[in-house]
Design a protein that fits this description.
One of its GO terms (molecular function) is sigma factor activity. By secondary structure, the protein is an all-alpha fold. The protein is 63% helix and 0% strand. It has one domain: Rna Polymerase Sigma Factor, Chain: A.
C-alpha cells in the first residue's frame, strides 16, 4: 500500500529545513493549477509567469506564517505577478485599474484555437476573457480550482461578502456574454445546456504540455 501524500505544510516545513526534494514535490503538486491560472488570461506569458510565481514562493517561503492554505499563498503571489505583468505592458496608461478591465479590453490573451478544441470551448474562453479580470479570477478560483469564498477573499484582498456577490454577478454576466458572443443560436444553446462539461473540458485543455511541465 502506497503512503499517504504529505500535506502541503509538511512539505513546506521539510523544504525550509533544507529538503530540496520536498520543495520540488510541492511545486509539482501545484504547477498545473498555477500555469492554468495564467494561460486562461495571458497565454503567451503563462510559462514565464508560472516560474516567477514559484521563484517568489522560494524567496518568501520563510515569511509564510501558515495563517492561510499554501494554495491561497501561491495564488496571491500569482495574482500579484499577473497584475504587475499587465501594468508593465500598459505603461502608456500607468493608472489603469487592472481588476476592472477584461483581458479583451487590455489586448491580452491569444487566439483560442490552440487551447480550445471545440467551438463551445472557444466561446466559453472568449466570454471569460470579456469579464472584468477580478470577476474572471474569482470565477476560475471557485469553479475550477475549488477555493472557498474565504480563500478567494484572501487572494484578492476583498471582504468575503463582496466575493459572494462578485461570484453571483460573474456567473450571470458570463451567461450574458455567451449569448452576445455566440455566432449561432445552436452554439449558444449547446454551450449553455452543457456548461459544466464544456467548462471542465476547457480547464483540462489549459493544462501544460509535457515540455512545459517542471
Amino acid at each position: 500500500m502506497s503512503a499517504e501524500p504529505k500535506p502541503d505544510f509538511e512539505l513546506l516545513e521539510s523544504w525550509r529545513a533544507g529538503d530540496e526534494r520536498a520543495g520540488r514535490e510541492l511545486f509539482a503538486r501545484h504547477f498545473d493549477s498555477i500555469y492554468r491560472f495564467f494561460r486562461s488570461k495571458v497565454d503567451d506569458a503563462a510559462e514565464d509567469l508560472t516560474q516567477q510565481t514559484f521563484l517568489g514562493c522560494v524567496k518568501g517561503k520563510d515569511r509564510y506564517r501558515g495563517d492561510a492554505s499554501f494554495r491561497t499563498y501561491l495564488y496571491t503571489i500569482a495574482r500579484n505577478r499577473l497584475y504587475t505583468h499587465i501594468r508593465d505592458r500598459q505603461r502608456r496608461d500607468a493608472v489603469v485599474e487592472v481588476g476592472q478591465q477584461s483581458v479583451a479590453d487590455l489586448g491580452l490573451g491569444s487566439a483560442t484555437a490552440h487551447i480550445a478544441a471545440r467551438e463551445e470551448q472557444k466561446l466559453l474562453l472568449t466570454a471569460m476573457r470579456h469579464l472584468p479580470l477580478e470577476m474572471q479570477v474569482a470565477l476560475e478560483l471557485h469553479y475550477w480550482e475549488g477555493l472557498s469564498v474565504r480563500e478567494i477573499a484572501a487572494v484578492i484582498d476583498t471582504p468575503e461578502g463582496t466575493i459572494k456577490r462578485r461570484l453571483q454577478r460573474a456567473r450571470q454576466r458570463l451567461d450574458e456574454l455567451i449569448v452576445e458572443l455566440a455566432t449561432s443560436e445552436e452554439l449558444r444553446r449547446s454551450t449553455q445546456a452543457n456548461f459544466d462539461d464544456w467548462a471542465k473540458a476547457l480547464r483540462d485543455n489549459l493544462a501544460p504540455t509535457p515540455t512545459e511541465e517542471p
